[in-house]
Amino acid sequence: MSTYTTDKASPFTRAVISSMRKLYPEALADKSFDNTGLLLEAPFDPIRRQMNSVLLTIDLTKRVADEAIERKDCVVVAYHPIIFKGLKSLTLADSQQQSLLRLALEGISVYSPHTAVDAAPGGLADWLADIVTGHLPSPEPETHTAKQEKTEEPIPEEDEANANSEVKGPPDQPAGEKKRPQRPRMSMQRTYSKPTYPSHKPVDASKTDLEPSCVDHTRSVISPVEGVEGFEGAGMGRLITFSEPQPLTHLVERIAHGVGSPKGFPLAIPQGKQVEDIQIGTVGVSAGSGHSILKGVEADLLFTGELSHHEALAATEKGQCVITLFHSNSERGYLSSVLREKLTNVLKEEWERLRKEVADAQELTPEWEDAVKDEDVLVECSQQDRDPFGVVILQSSKQEGKPLS
Q1: Which CA distances in Å does 257 have to 123, 130, 248?
Q2: Is there a contact between 346 and 22 (Cβ–Cβ < 8 Å)?
């Protein structure tokens, strides 16, 4: 009997897919544009089977594919679909297709849940809402904008002396007129930091001082998804209404702690206002590119992954504030904080069920028996996955930021 199958994925792969569909049914996804589900189904070869492990990532890049191959993972769960549109060919010339072909060769499948995770109760939108409504140790620290300082560089002594001396000029220059000072010389070498990215560490009560979702509030779904049994209350985006207005400075601190303490993130406020003076009563929340969900939402603060220049400008002109994190930084923390544990728990039960089902259904070769007897279940987050953008800091500059006003 041949051990190699060309029409089936590995039993463990099937257990992973079943588990993801239990947690985040594909019916929750926005099928008007999204491409969720099993995107790459690698055939199973029990002689050189992969580990019973899952690698979680936001984006399936070449570095993440290398990581999965080195780790011998069975499945990559990539939040963003690596295939969005129909393909007319699969070649090594395309970097994304190259990753897919290499993974298939190694027997590694790829599953993408994307907007199903956004919409699910307890999913990505609720995770972001939990951060905004969290609480830091009392009294909560306040974030202040930097004071604007003079950054004029001193005129070298020789230039200063020349500037203050009386000299004879050309015939048409009045006697005693001071010479114009020479242009100041750039004497300070400016050094930039390496790009910094939010931490991969899990965000839970044991890992951070942020207590999620403990500030009194109500929340509602912005764009409901109905008709999925067992997932009542699902939908895209969340609108948060605080019982009492919250200082914007407090929300900035909560978000920073909740998403992995980045060195900085964009904040837009209406012109003529100061960050320290703004109170927030309502927050519209959406992961990733939030405009399609948040447009038309009447909220004091829009909290999302990214907005375009004109979208953010339109919001501030209406009197709204905007916080963006760079697209995937609004999503990545969910993998380590929530999805890793959720998937591990469901997958253990599903793998136990499927192992018995396969063992009872057919006569197994020794290689298949080894695969089915393996009780191990491991779910981990990629260490190579990150947003394309990092924050670079001018280390030698005394000016840390121009006040927003």
Answers
A1: 19, 12, 14
A2: yes
pLDDT tens profile 200-237? 665 444 456 788 888 999 999 999 999 999 999 999 99
Closest CA to 21 of 124, 100, 120: 120
Q: Where are the alpha helices (DSSP H) in 106-247?
A: 115-119, 124-132, 157-164
Percent of the chain surpassing pLDDT 70: 80
User: Distance (Å, rounded) from C-alpha 403 to C-alpha 155?
Assistant: 27
DSSP per-residue codes, 99-141:
HHHHHHHTT-EEEE-THHHHHSTTSHHHHHHHHHT-BPSSSPP
Residue type, 99: S
Taking the CB of residue 356, how many other CB atoms lie within 10 A of it?
11
Could you give the CA distance from residue 51 to residue 66 in angstroms, rounded to a whole number? Answer: 15
Separation between Cα atoms, residue 105 and residue 103, nearest integer Å: 5
Contact residues for 287 (Cβ-Cβ < 8 A; gap 6+): 118, 124, 125, 128, 304, 305, 330, 331
CA distance 265 to 96: 29
Which of 245, 238, 204, 211 lies closest to 224 in space, CA to CA?
238
**Residue 382: which residues within 8 A CB-CB, separation 6 or more?**
55, 56, 57, 64, 67, 68
- Asked whether the beta carbons of 111 and 17 are under 8 A apart, the reply is yes
Q: How many CA atoms lie within 13 A of 332 on its CB side?
A: 27
**Partners of 53 in the β-ladder:** 378
Between CA 131 and CA 168 the distance in angstroms is 70
Residue type for position 135: H
Please enumerate in sequence order all residues whose Cβ is within 8 A of that of 225, keeping only pairs 6 or more positions apart, or say none.
Answer: 28, 119, 231, 234, 235, 236
Structure tokens given for 151: 């950054």
| Structure confidence by residue, pLDDT tens digits, 99-112 | 999 999 999 999 99
**368: part of which helix (H) or strand (E)?**
helix 366-373
> Mapping DSSP to helix (H, G, I), strand (E, B) and coil, where does residue 201 land?
coil
Instruction: Extract the runs of DSSP E, i.e. beta strands, from 301-383.
Output: 301-306, 321-324, 378-381
Determine the Cα–Cα distance for residues 390 and 214; give it in Å rounded to an integer: 31
Confidence of residue 139 (pLDDT cuts 50, 70, 90): low
